[in-house]
Design goal:
Elements lengths: L1 H28 L7 H8 L14 H15 L2 H14 L4 H19 L1 H6 L8 H9 L1
Helix pairs in contact: 3-4, 3-5, 4-5, 5-7
Amino acid sequence: MTHTARRIGRSLALVLPVVLVLSGTLAVTSVPWAGSSSQTRMLTASSENVSVRAKPRAPQDILRDKLLAELQEKDPGVALTHLQRAVEERPSLARHCMSIARALGRAAVQHYGPVKAQTYSRPVCDTSYAAGVAHES
């Protein structure tokens, strides 16, 4: 009996790896690697969760976010002063100054209320801050 078991074991030891390799090869070749569009969607579904590199943000967007955070932490006067300095240092931001000041005015109304927000008004960017306060009120 032990002789028969050894023969079966040896046969399996030789045949089983061959069967596993062949079945794996057949499984890989049966996958439609370059098929029609519906099959392609199936293959690319795993790439949906891949993180995409963030697009570089524009300087005016970075400045607006920084000033809005500063408005929340300190007060609108500080944010307006920093906006004016940023425009003086980088004249390319001048064309965005009005929209940033308006956004600061709207945020000030939401955070401080219309009356207190109006007390911080000053002629930065052609009084756009005041326009933002008035628009949000």
